[in-house]
Design a protein that fits this description.
By secondary structure, the protein is α/β, with parallel strands linked by helices. Helix content is about 30%, strand content about 25%.
Length: about 190
């Protein structure tokens, strides 16, 4: 079990960089997992909740969820619950430009988790985390990964709601991310 720290509010980039440098100073036995900033938190139904996730939406099960958007993570949990499917753990990594942990980090945890049989990744425009996650999936995962990337109609250079959701360079648009995920064998919805 690893100590997990959750930052639900926004942090200025310079403060987040200081936090990440501090966390890197710990050896691997003492490393902490930072979720956020701008995160809804992390929940393992029936076990633990850290953050602001509405626990009533989450039924115990075997689907892992990783989302940049807390609201879309809630929606995924609600839709799965409506069809009788539950969640092993759901993580809202936050949508800020600099986050404590990434899609790739959590894919590694889900791959090792015996209670998770499939993972849902909910990404959005901006940044390259989804592309890094796709490469990790292709090389290191045996469990199915289903991805949804929001922002398909956002033009390049558009700033969206999250601090990290701006299309700045190649590989950051939703269309480009979808193609990379598909090329790596991920099911995209």
């Amino acid at each position: 079990i690893r100590l997990c720290v959750c930052v639900t509010g926004e942090l200025p980039a310079q403060d987040m960089i200081r936090v990440k440098r501090y966390l890197r100073s710990f050896n691997s036995a003492r490393k902490m997992l930072l979720v956020g900033p701008g995160s809804a938190g992390i929940i393992s139904p029936g076990k633990a909740l850290l953050g602001i996730m509405p626990g009533y939406l989450y039924k115990q099960g075997s689907v892992g969820i990783i989302a940049r958007s807390g609201t879309l993570g809630f929606e995924a949990a609600a839709q799965l619950e409506a069809i009788g499917t539950g969640i092993s753990t759901s993580v809202g990594i936050g949508g800020d430009a600099i986050t404590g942990s990434s899609f790739r980090d959590h894919l590694e945890y889900f791959e090792q988790d015996p209670e998770t049989s499939v993972v849902i990744l909910i990404g959005e425009i901006g940044g390259v985390q989804e592309v890094e996650a796709a490469a990790f999936y292709r090389e290191h995962m045996s469990k199915p990964l289903i991805a949804c990337i929001v922002g398909m109609s956002a033009p390049r250079g558009t700033r969206m709601g999250h601090a990290g959701a701006i299309i700045a360079s190649h590989g950051e648009s939703a269309i480009e991310k979808v193609q990379v995920l598909k090329d790596c064998g991920v099911t995209v919805v």
